[in-house]
Amino acid sequence: MAVISSASPLSIASLFRPIRKYPTLADLVITATSIRCLSSLSQPMDDRQQPESKKRVVVCGGGIIGVCTAYFLAKKGEAVTLVEKSSVACAASGKAGGFLALDWCDGGPVESLARASFNLHRSLSEELNGPDSYGYRPLTTLSITVTESGPSSPSGSKSSGDSMIPSWVDGATRGPRTIGTTQTTAQVHPQLFTRTLLNTAVEKYGVEVVIGKLEQLRVEEGRVGSVVLEGGRVIESDSVVLSLGPWTGKFEMLASMFRVSGLKAHSIVLEPKDPGAITPHALFLSFHPQGGKAMDPEVYPRPTGNVYMWDVSGGRGAR
User: Fold this and answer.
1) For the whole model, what pTM was predicted?
2) For residue 66, what are the contacts with CB-CB under 8 A and spacing of at least 6?
3) What are 25-78's pLDDT values in tens digits?
4) Of 48, 74, 91, 181, whose CA is between 20 and 30 Å from 248?
5) pLDDT one-digit tens code per residue, 265-277
6) In the chain, where are the structural domains located?
7) Which CATH number, 3.50.50.60, 1.20.58.760, 3.30.420.40, 1.10.1470.10, labels domain 56-98+189-256?
8) Cα separation of 190 and 181, whole Å?
9) Separation of alpha carbons 182 and 82, rounded Å
10) Phi, psi (5° rounding) for residue 75?
11) H/E stretch holding 30
């Protein structure tokens, strides 16, 4: 049985904030699924659905880390409750670029983790119909230098090496270089991915979703015994996973142990006049504006028909 509950009264539609639907992706009908889940409350619970041996795990945080943790724990047979303060994938997990790379961390401490993550995304796409559900697809990734044209320069001029540059890229470009192929780079729509994963976890593996603010962890005999939400609701647990992102440092119990802070980045989403003309190329640009400071914007066309762009010049965060 899949149950969606709340620490306080709320409408089912408010569980997931609406996102714009695009004709190139299958609709993600989470609200309808939630209603079906609630209707199952009247059905008896059998031993197979809730065996005595299940460990009770509370995952706090409805971003990509929390949702993935809940999904895989529930798939392994644990009884999982996911607690989210507002709505699933409402912050960085829903507004990131969704770029995936196989070997860009090679030689570093997270090489094996990055490779495992890339391959896991590929297998999840097969399991969850990623291309239709959340825009998973391989990409060719290019590095390009772009110089802003002056008043007397033709705006659409390109330099030598144009054959590598997608037709929808204009301006004075130079030094195109392939830094990722369809075998080594890919993308997802991060908000659709997170919600698809949780939708599956709820419907198929019985994850319970609670909308409420975490207030306290109750520790009994040296271990966590329950979590307390704003308003006084108590959820008993055998284990608790905290995946609160930059809000971790605001949780009093953890703030005294270590510091966690967020990194601000700015992004925009563009809607091309002819989405079909935008080829699946991720662009890592070195942009030199007239009389300004160089910037390093990244451009990710999506199969949803729009183009995501962000600038990491002020600091590089999670993609």
Assistant:
1) 0.79
2) 59, 60, 82, 84, 241, 243
3) 333 333 333 323 333 333 343 434 455 678 999 999 999 999 999 999 999 999
4) 74
5) 889 999 999 999 9
6) 56-98+189-256
7) 3.50.50.60
8) 20
9) 34
10) -65, -30
11) helix 30-39
